[in-house]
Amino acid sequence: MWGILAFNRLPAEVMTAAISAAVVSALGVWLVMMYMDPYGPARQQVKSRAASLGKRLNRRVELNQYEEQVAAQAIAPEDIRVVMQDVAGLEHITSDLELKVMAPLRHPHLYSTTLLKQARGVLLYGPPGTGKTMLAQALAREAGCFFLNLTASSVVSKWMGDSNRLVRAAFSLAAKLEPAIIFVDEVDALLGRRGGASEHEVTLLLKTEFMQLWDGVETNPAQRVFVVGATNRPWMLDEAVLRRFAIAYEVGY
C-alpha cells in the first residue's frame, strides 16, 4: 500500500521540481540579459519621452537606444521657463547673441552662402553662478531650439564603445529635432587638452569623435544644430576645441 502511494505521489513531485527549475532558469536568463543590457530599464522609461518628442514635432521620430538615452535630457523650447529678459546684467551679450546666433537659426536660408556663414559654436566662460546655463537655456527658448544637455558623466560609460555611441547619438538626435542646441556643461571635463601622460585612449577617441561630428555640422549649412559650451576654466580646453568655438563670451559678475 505504501509503495503504491509513494508511486502516485512521484509525478507531482517531479512536476514541482520541473516547474521550480524552469522558474530558476528563466530568472537566470533575465539576470544575464539585464547584465548584458544595462540600459534596459532606463530605455523603457524614456520610450514615452521619445513618443512625446514626436508629438511635439507632429511626426514620428525613430530613435535608437543611445538616442533614447540622450532624449531623456532633451527639453522642448516651449518647456524652457527662462527668457533673455530674465538674464539681468548681460544685455551686451544677449544683443550680440540675437545677431550672431538667433537670427541664423531662425532664418538659415540667409546664411547658406560662404559670404554670410553661420557660426556653430559659442563658449560661455566665467566664475560659477554667473548665469551661463541660464543664458544658454534662454538662447534655446527664444531661438525655438530643442535643448540637449550633455555632461561628461552623461556620455562617459564603463562599457567599451558606448561613450562614442552616445556622442554620435547626441548629434544624430539633434539633427532629428533641429533646430537644436547641444549644451555641454563643464565642457573642459569632456573636451579638455589632449596628450596628457595620464589620458586614456578611450577619452582621446571620445574627443576626436566629438570634434569630427562638430565639423560635420559646420560643413552642412542646411543643418540647424548649434553647440554651446560652458566652463569655469577655459584655459583647460583643447586648442582645437577653442578654434571651433567661433564666438566666446566672458560671463562675469
From TrEMBL:
Molecular functions (GO terms): ATP binding; ATP hydrolysis activity
Record field: transmembrane: 14-35
Main location: mitochondrion
Subcellular location: Mitochondrion
Domain AAA+ ATPase: 118-253
Keywords annotated in UniProt: ATP-binding, Coiled coil, Membrane, Mitochondrion, Nucleotide-binding, Transmembrane, Transmembrane helix
One Gene Ontology term, aspect cellular component: mitochondrial outer membrane
Pfam families recorded: AAA
Coiled-coil annotated spans: none
Taxonomic superkingdom: Eukaryota
Cited SMART domains: AAA
Gene3D superfamilies linked: P-loop containing nucleotide triphosphate hydrolases
PROSITE patterns in UniProt: AAA
Family of the protein in this entry: Belongs to the AAA ATPase family.
Name of this protein: AAA+ ATPase domain-containing protein
Annotated source species: Gonium pectorale
